[in-house]
């Protein structure tokens, strides 16, 4: 079986392309996952094929990345409008990183919204590989009625619902065809010495020789050929499928590529897992592509026994049919297989770094509908995060509530639906509160005596303490200047412990940071003093001093690294400024052509608005990663509102 992925932005007709390709010869068999990855098995040219139709939203980019891990080649569907080329930037980025041979298909050419050369030029801004036209459109007025193949130099007229008709190259197309063919041959000659010599000697190379060169170059992932058509009318589909059949590499090349990028020997690489989902009454289903011989139910894969092997289309057991190299199948009762991963018989090998999905930006607290579902929710989210690497699961600081980081609103909605439909856990979500702190603005001293008589031995401890602000980021510090044994040495650790305990909650209700405490003097009683007494005296004394120390609210500030196409960098300055952030600068992203890494400091309270504004400004393409940088003072009405909200349970911490 040969396998390819069809990917690209939403509304570019990916699913229609798959449907038309799969229906060229015979009846296709289709299956799908709850995450929007659809699989279509079909036959073409007496070969078995599997098309992986990756979901289009940018929030589902991880599923497209993982599908590429199991694909011999891919088709990137793009719009015929030059101004929409930027929407393909995330897909070109992962294609370049993955090394997957790719054919770029400009779809919906029946409704052109710009010159084809402008489309290619705009897309080239995001591709390291040369985008090389293999066809040019044939026009009648403003309409595109067919295409001309630049290798065979044959022209085809589109016919609705029928195979295209061979025609003579129209006179008004001949000059453009000659120019485009010359450019094609010049680019191909960069990778073939024989062709270069033919062109230098002014000899006309044969079509068969050119097709052979094109096939080799695609298999070696040297260029990205560009084909055109209109899938909704079936136009260009046969040529596209023939290009895949003759030029896409076999599964052995994929095995070599994965072994080269991973830490596994090619001879030991048995399979690759690339997608997983949960089904009611079935459990975890893992989609696997066989790369070697010997896979069957019960065989050792990934260090444990492979569960039931199922047919993709009907879910029935395939225990009597052994998956051949290249076959795609569903494995159940194989929970030991992580996704994605490279699999040998005895081990699971981590996938290449390029499969890591974008950093999730949307944070939500999930609240179960009933108390009995709290533990179940925690266990279930852990399972789902294993099947979906675009999802991160943590616990909210202070409350321990389940905090999830999703790729966006659609991703979050799909997660909640899976929890409800498959695991019968009803949840609501809320926005997590930023983690605030407090500190003091000026030093103070306190003298505190703890005395308590309880019938037997009493409690006595007397401490004199100095409390002062530390430098930002220094945290808590403790010192002592005791002389003459006023406080015995064995009680001093208890004084420090009491001071630390007082820092857990200050006058404003938040944890206290960047404060130093010094034990200046004190008294003890030979009978009634104890570690507990000194710990209590220190805690109460520090609390008293904090309340007298001009407490200041501190808000978290995060360093944010934005990953965006360069055309959007200018708009970020205004977005960051509007959210009281500080722009640090930006650089070209050395790992992705046409992308920038834009850096800024942003208050934690603005991250939710930042994610929303970024999605809007970049058409859902841009994303950011964040790391805590520091706490800074917050004053005025905003600080007062946060302190008031702290008095209401569950609103701030």
SSE arrangement:
Blueprint: E1 2-7, H1 14-22, E2 29-32, E3 38-44, E4 47-53, H2 61-68, E5 73-78, H3 89-98, E6 102-106, H4 116-124, E7 130-133, E8 135-140, E9 143-149, E10 154-159, E11 162-167, H5 171-189, H6 193-200, H7 207-219, E12 223-228, H8 237-247, H9 251-261, E13 271-279, E14 283-290, E15 300-301, E16 304-305, E17 309-310, E18 328-332, E19 341-343, E20 348-349, E21 362-368, H10 374-387, E22 392-395, E23 402-406, H11 409-421, E24 427-430, E25 437-440, E26 444-452, E27 459-469, E28 477-480, H12 492-502, E29 511-512, E30 515-523, H13 531-547, E31 551-565, H14 569-578, E32 582-588, E33 595-603, H15 607-617, E34 623-634, H16 636-646
Parallel strand pairs: 1-4, 1-5, 5-6, 6-12, 7-12, 25-29, 28-30
Antiparallel strand pairs: 2-3, 3-4, 8-9, 9-10, 10-11, 13-14, 13-19, 14-18, 15-16, 17-18, 19-20, 21-23, 21-24, 22-23, 25-31, 26-27, 27-30, 31-33, 31-34, 32-33
Bulk shape: elongated
Q: How would you sum up the major sheet? A: 8 strands, mixed
Please tally the β strands and state the result. 34
- Structural class computed from helices and strand pairing: alpha+beta
State which percent range the strand residues make up.
25-35%
Q: Roughly how many Å is the radius of gyration?
A: 32 Å
Name the helicity range. 25-40%
Mean pLDDT rating: 91
H/I helix tally: 16
* Strand order in space, largest sheet: 2-3-4-1-5-6-12-7
Distance between the termini: 55 Å
Oligomerization state: single chain
Name the poorly predicted regions.
none
């Amino acid at each position: 079986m040969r396998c390819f992925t069809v990917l690209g932005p939403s509304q570019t007709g990916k699913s229609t392309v798959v449907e038309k390709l799969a229906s060229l010869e015979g009846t296709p068999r289709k299956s799908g996952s709850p995450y929007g990855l659809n699989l279509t098995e079909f036959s073409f040219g007496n070969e078995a094929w599997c098309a992986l139709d990756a979901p289009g939203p940018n929030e589902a980019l991880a599923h497209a990345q993982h599908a590429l891990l199991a694909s011999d080649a891919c088709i990137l569907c793009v719009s015929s409008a030059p101004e929409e080329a930027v929407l393909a930037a995330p897909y070109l980025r992962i294609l370049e990183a993955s090394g997957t041979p790719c054919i770029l298909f400009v779809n919906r050419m029946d409704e052109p919204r710009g010159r084809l050369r402008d489309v290619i030029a705009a897309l080239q801004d995001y591709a390291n590989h040369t985008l090389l036209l293999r066809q040019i459109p044939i026009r009648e007025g403003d309409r595109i009625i067919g295409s001309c193949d630049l290798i065979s130099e044959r022209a085809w007229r589109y016919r609705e619902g029928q195979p295209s008709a061979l025609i003579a190259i129209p006179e008004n197309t001949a000059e453009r065809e000659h120019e485009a063919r010359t450019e094609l041959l010049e680019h191909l000659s960069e990778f073939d010495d024989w062709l270069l010599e033919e062109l230098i000697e002014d000899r006309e190379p044969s079509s068969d020789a050119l097709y052979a060169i094109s096939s080799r170059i695609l298999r070696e992932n040297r260029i990205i050929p560009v084909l055109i058509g209109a899938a909704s009318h079936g136009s260009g589909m046969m040529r596209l499928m023939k290009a895949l059949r003759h030029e896409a590499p076999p599964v052995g090349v994929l095995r070599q590529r994965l072994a080269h990028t991973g830490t596994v020997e090619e001879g030991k690489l048995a399979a690759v897992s690339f997608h997983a989902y949960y089904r009611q009454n079935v459990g975890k289903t893992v989609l696997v592509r066989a790369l070697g011989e010997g896979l069957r139910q019960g065989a050792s894969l990934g260090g444990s026994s492979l569960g039931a092997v199922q047919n993709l289309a009907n879910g029935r057991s395939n225990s009597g049919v052994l998956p051949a190299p290249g076959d795609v199948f569903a494995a159940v009762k194989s929970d030991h297989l992580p996704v994605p991963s490279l699999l040998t018989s005895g081990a699971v090998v981590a996938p290449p770094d390029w499969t890591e999905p974008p950093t999730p930006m949307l944070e939500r607290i999930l609240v179960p509908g009933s108390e009995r579902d709290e533990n179940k929710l925690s266990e279930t989210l852990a399972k789902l995060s294993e099947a979906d690497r675009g999802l991160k699961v943590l616990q909210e600081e202070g409350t321990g509530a389940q905090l999830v980081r999703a790729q966006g609103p659609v991703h979050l909605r799909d997660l909640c639906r899976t929890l409800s439909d498959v695991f019968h856990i009803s949840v609501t979500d809320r926005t997590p509160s930023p983690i605030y702190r407090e500190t003091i603005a000026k030093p103070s001293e306190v003298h505190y005596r703890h005395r308590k008589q309880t019938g037997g031995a009493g409690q006595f401890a007397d401490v004199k303490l100095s409390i002062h602000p530390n430098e930002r980021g220094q945290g808590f510090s403790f010192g002592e200047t005791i002389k003459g044994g006023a406080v015995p040495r064995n009680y001093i650790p208890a004084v420090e412990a009491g001071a630390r305990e007082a820092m857990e909650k200050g006058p404003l209700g938040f944890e206290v940071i960047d404060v130093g405490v010094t034990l200046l003097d004190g008294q003890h009683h030979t009978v009634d003093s104890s570690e507990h007494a000194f710990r209590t005296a220190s805690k109460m004394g520090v609390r008293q001093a904090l309340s007298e120390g001009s407490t200041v609210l501190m808000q978290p500030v995060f360093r944010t690294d934005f990953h965006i196409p360069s055309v959007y960098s200018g708009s970020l300055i205004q977005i960051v400024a509007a959210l009281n952030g500080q722009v640090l600068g930006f650089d070209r992203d050395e790992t992705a052509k046409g992308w920038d890494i834009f850096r800024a400091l942003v208050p934690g309270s603005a991250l939710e608005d930042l994610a929303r504004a970024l999605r809007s400004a970049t058409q859902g393409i841009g994303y950011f990663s964040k790391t805590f940088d520091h706490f800074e003072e917050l004053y005025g009405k905003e600080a007062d509102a946060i302190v008031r909200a702290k008095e209401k349970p569950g609103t701030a911490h």
